[in-house]
Amino acid sequence: MDLADLTNRWAKLAGRDAVIWRDHTYSYGWLIEKTAHFNRWLNDAKITPGTVVSLEADYSPNSIALLLALIERRAIIVPLTMNIEERKAEFRGLAGAETRLVIQADSDLVDSYPLPPRGSPHDLIQKLRRDFHPGMILFSSGSTGVVKGVVHDLTRLFEKFQTIRHAKRTVTFLMFDHIGGIDTLFYTLFNGGCLITAQDRSPEAICRLVEQHRVEVLPVSPTFINLMLLSEAYRRHDLSSLQIVTYGAEVMPEPVLKRFHEVLPHVRTLQKYGLTELGALRSKSRGDDSVWVKIGGEGYDIRVVDGLLQIKARSAMLGYLNAASPFTDDGWFQTGDLVEVDGDWLRILGRKSDMINVGGEKVLPTEVESVLQMMDGVQEAVVRGEPNPLTGNIVVATVTLRTDETPDQFRVRLRQFCKDKLPPHKTPQKVIIDSGQLHTYRYKKRRLATTETN
Description:
There is one protein chain. By secondary structure, this protein is an alpha/beta fold. Helices cover 27% and strands 30% of the residues. Strands 6-5-3-4-7-8-19 form a seven-stranded mixed β-sheet, sandwiched between helices. A hairpin with a 2-residue loop joins strand 20 (333-342) and strand 21. The chain starts with a helix and ends in a 21-residue tail after the last strand.
């Protein structure tokens, strides 16, 4: 879809709320005018089509309008937020950024910094320039320590928004530089909905936003849902406007999903499936308390090979800047996700790379985490493998607690709890009690090794 077509659509919605930021409301008419303002600014700044631009911002009306203007100018955009401050220079270098734009959240003033040349542009950058298409470079979350630069053709990525769907009031929980955040942003705006921006993503702050601005859709992660339940923030705020909670980015523990459905039965839950490399697919959950899901829809084909999910998508990335192609010879993206199949329904089990081999027996961390999550007093649980000379690996569980137990007391209780729920090779042989957070700033489980603190 061309942004000119989108602007024509917005002109008919000029008085409708487009963005709520820090309790101030900005209309679609305002968004059209501000995007035009930034178009003129980009022209004066001599930012031409195909320029690789590092856009350092977070959700605000001005940053959204500048992003739209860059897309209309057919730039190649590298969105970067303050959460990765220490890696921005690395990411700019990897992307081959030519210009750095920094916009202050409460102003339409943009600081522009030219960057030194970095040699010949990557082949994928040159392809976007030849096709005269806007592009976007996103970086994987790096929760496993490996970050990849993902190049998207925005013309292809936007095709799925051509069909007009529901206009909803939606919170921007997922980040400005994350594929889920980008999908939320454009799905909401393309359909004439309202974006309610979040500066604080704690359960208390998000529930307050839902109440204050009558939010209808909340896209989050399973980790956030678990923390919201534990905090009981849902009890302190009126969430009656909330219609749908979507979740993705990691495997949902069944006990957490069932508990959420019990405490907020009026809210429909929808499992989403997406990857930085593919964008978000349309999905349908088997039920509000079910982890089985159908994914795909127009523009997507699904197949399972040796228990691993593969997807062919029109919206797929062009490729990586710094890694080999993950596509098969016939064009299927190899997700690396293990799945169970029941007719048209899938159950996402987790990443194959996270699988733990214990004496020849395979252990999925998510299976063990789901059991630990049922224990009283467990706030977060992350399971990983650790090398062992006898069995190859052992199962290691790192947990944060809401009890006053000593580590030894908890370890005894854990093993007793798991006795009739997990076979011996899946029961954690090493238990680490951690006093910090076991999730990233994206509210996704951190599977890197942690340090024992008690």
